Prior knowledge:
With 1238 residues, this protein is mainly beta. The chain contains three helices and 92 strands.
Amino acid sequence: MMSSLRRALVVLLSVVAVTLSVGGHALAVQPAQPPPAGPEQDSVTVTGGSVLPGGARQRTAEAQAPASEFEKKKLTDDVGEPMALAVLPDARVLMTDRRGIVRIFDPATYNVTEAGQLNVYTGEEDGLQGIAVDPNFAENQWVYAYYSPAGSEPLNRLSRFKLDGNELRLDSEQNIIEVPTQRDLCCHVGGDIDFDADGNLYLSTGDNTNSWASDGYTPIDEQEGREPFDAQRSSANTNDLRGKLLRINVAEDGSYTIPEGNLFPEGTENARPEIYYMGLRNPFRFSVDPQTGWVYIGIVGPDASEDDPERGPRQYEELDVVTEAGNSGWPYCIGDGIPYHDYDFATDTPGEPFDCANLVNDSPNNTGMSELPPADDPAIWYPYDCFDTFPQIDCPGGGTAMGGPVYRYDENLESNTKFPAEYDGAEFFYEYSRGFIKDVRMDENAELQSIDPFLPEQEFNQPMDLEFGPEGSLYVLEYGGGFFTPGPDAGLYRVDYTQGQHSPSAQVTATPTSGDAPLEVNFDASESTDADGDEISFEWDFTGDGSTDAEGPTASHTYTENGSYSAKLTVTDSTGRFSVVRVDISVGNHAPEVELEFPDDGATFEFGDEVSYRVNVTDPEDGTVGNGIDCAEVSVQVALGHDEHAHPQSTNQGCTGVVEIQEEAGHGGDANLFTVLRANYTDQGGENVEPAEGSHEILLQPKHKQAEYFSSSEGVEVVEHEEAEGAGLVSAIAPGDWIAFDPLSAQSVDEVSFRVRGTGVGGNIELRQGAPDGAVLGTAEVPAGTEGSYVDVGPVEVTEQDDDGSAIYAVFTGEGENLFELDSLNFHGLGATGPLNVTAQSDVRTGAAPLEVNFTAEAERAPEGATYTWDFGDGAEGTGAEAAHTYAEKGDYTATVTLTDGQGRQRGTASTEVRVVDAVDGELTVTPESAELPSGTEHEVTATFNQAARAAGAEVTVEVYRESPASSLPAGHDSGTPYLRAEQHIAAADESGVVRMPYSSPVGANDIVVACAAYGDSCIRGTDTLVQADDGPANLRSDVAVDTAEVTWTAQPDENGFLNLFDGRTLAGWQHVGTGGFDVAGGLLQPRAEGDERGVLWYADQEFSDYVLEAEYESFSVSADSGLYQRFDDPGDDAELPGKQGYEVAILDRVDDPVDRTGSIAGVQAAEFLAAKPPYGGWNKFSIRVEGNKYTVTLNDEVVTEYTSEGDRGTGPFVGLENASEELRFRNIKIKPLNENG
């Protein structure tokens, strides 16, 4: 990929906003303000068809066709982590996924097929990159790919493969050329491929240089051992293939020859003849004009945001137009011949500026010529900020220049979608970060002639690759908001020239979309329309096999077998234009229901606010939150909305949390901005049934809202005025007119004020809930005022209504016409920051009267002076974060706590259920009282009522609590040892008053077995932790019959000699030192970090000498930070000791120094290569062999590090895990001793 971390932080994403249904693949255009979005149900509506610009902008040149004559259509979102595309002669589209997959989109069926998967290395930006089709594909079926082969050898490879139908024949690979690289550090791969009219192949390569240590200026660190930080060894090296545009002619056997006109003739000493153009930083995307042979190269620039008199120029992105062999000048010059300064990184001493006309490479890392060709000037160059030299470039914003295709008009081509002749010779230059496409024209001397916007009102969400197809349409591959991960809005699109004729808008509702077989699904497409008024027809393919199963606007189909199906609807108008939408149907698995419980849909915010959220998920198969559904699997994405799209910003994991509402550069206070929160959960699927996704999306509105950005209106007009805050004023207001904002919530809004422009008449503004005649929230009187002057009206009090998330209408009343003009609305109060996450717990949930219950409440970020008040559900009340109450009567009760801040505002509520039942008398006995067993064997516990109780049928709870010293003590306990619940069995006693429970432990452990007659509740007071004090369990229930026993498990190896260290339920055997901790959920071990501090979880129950330690981990970010500590002494309270005294095997993919990357002996010896799977790419398996002084680290079956210590460290007997971030989790931790003492 093309970026460093800077790309994610400053990038201005331009997103085509889509609304995806549960399992849907189709696109819905978001209105200026989207309609209210509720939790997704099992009836789903999806929309497809043309994505139209918001309105035709005045043409910048008479030669351009108006935007209204083009149409952008989404073809598929099944693109993975998309990198490049290539269109085949039959209009099938090849797409590469950085993770090695080649997909094919078929326009005849709209199906996507996985053609093949290359085994690739995916560290940093490496992986599968460019793809191209041989100019003679019809005869030879060759497809070219540039990729990073898996394994330890650092190189990238250009190969070609036969494409047989939809299968990429990997066994046909011809290795054409290999580019040696370094894989120690990020960045810049390049990797685009194209051909000229003579059949010559062009390949772009990046400088393979890390730029993070040069302050955003030129990376020319010549110190020994700092080679990855010196671009003089690559881009400026005539004997190196990196940082270049290569040009070769591939022969039939896969070998190649050198065309005439390359930069260095064959035989030139210290120079590679394959080089056509050198001095490139990251030429990520380029294209060759098939007519002129000119190459348009987009150059991704460095990071400095301002000029430095001692270092050189700020960042510039470039479009180079290459007409002959030459040198772009990197890393010595940038822009129009602006030189960097030489710099001594060892002493931080600046030198003289480089001479761009007489470049000399005297770096000790240079293996090529010292005297270089002069630096050429680019055609276009621009910084992050607005730039007077090129005012046509949208600004400000991030920077990722891309060299797009040149269109050549073919008058003999029969196509009703080909671009018109006026675009002949246009180069479609585009920006990944800023999301625009420009129509760039050059004259016959390759001098820049014009830069015009192409479809400026259309949105392009991180455009990754552009290519014209055989029918003359423009294909666009969009990355869609990802960062080294598949983007949530990634997709393949096509832009057609329709001459104003548009494809129909296909809309289908399917009910239900999931369930058990046989499943009857009703499909309704009667809401589909055609903007041109053409007659439309409908064809249904219920199973995605390409056959038409039904016709007409409605249809139904019964799915008789479990499985995942993709129902396809094709809507065709009378001109032959069509749109396709798909609905995913899951038979044998129900889609989860996801609900963002707060904040309200339409709640108000200010940038910088911290907003709490809470998500609830239910799934018929998986269960509910806390009972089958792990909140670690729930995500909440935050996006900044602008007009009809949204810019993804961050993703949080968890059912509850806090998000910061961030603004990005480039948007002023007059912009139509909002924030989108989208909660998502993907279930576990079923047998032969793919997992189903559920989501819920809400929209938050800014407290300062420009009036002209209403959702709907009656009677008013919008006019421009230079003194207006935004784009215009709401004008021509007459009595009874209104404007509506949908969604907009009065949640935690106290007052509202208005900015109006007087007309000399005056009137009133009534805010009403849900409808023009809905409940009145507040009324503001607008004085007649002075005509033409702006005044602030209010604030007036707002009465919050119960109906959350519906529209709010501003209804205008008065006498006369043209009452006033409305500029903006200002909402005052907490808004979306009002609701806080509050939890309520009772230490018992079921018991006999009189039942004493202790309640606790907690709120994240509770404001100072806040109070808790309780309604116990039986008419009694209480106060405080801790409260006790005794229920005297049998019944079901709901205890509710309310958090109120110091200003008397309610900030949140929570509740817990208590049931009071008839008493069950008698005593229980647990046998055996004690036992000592090897781990892995089965043990049966028996709980028996005494005969006098006659308790047959009474519910008995049998629980196992396992010593877990590294776990936290529950609230109300500040001493004792925590025992986490490992087992719970609730059953009715048989006729003899007996309940039996067999169980086992996979680890060495100390268990306390508890049995009680707790009416189906737990035997302890609290949640899942028993506290063992010096005199016994401290929180056993005393209001029920209860007895305990003890079991000691001695660790025994499995058949392969491994001892389990983690049982998936507790932290048995582990201790923790330092900040944070580890939690156990869903059988996984999750680090819990606190700030920048670190902690260590270490196994204290057994000492080891020589061993093999195995562990699996899964990461969600390239910045996931952890490690596995080896051979250290008891750290006591010193969290630094394991890293100083022992060795740490690192987990961190993005690093400044390879000695800290995943698989390395941190700070000591770098892993030879990064063998970790990319984020969200699945589980990674470590196997660490420690024998004598030798450490061998194997990751995913690849030996990545071998290190022999001098014996001064690594002499202790313990192993451990680091918690430094929460973006990963562990499982299957075990160890195999290699000698009798370990």
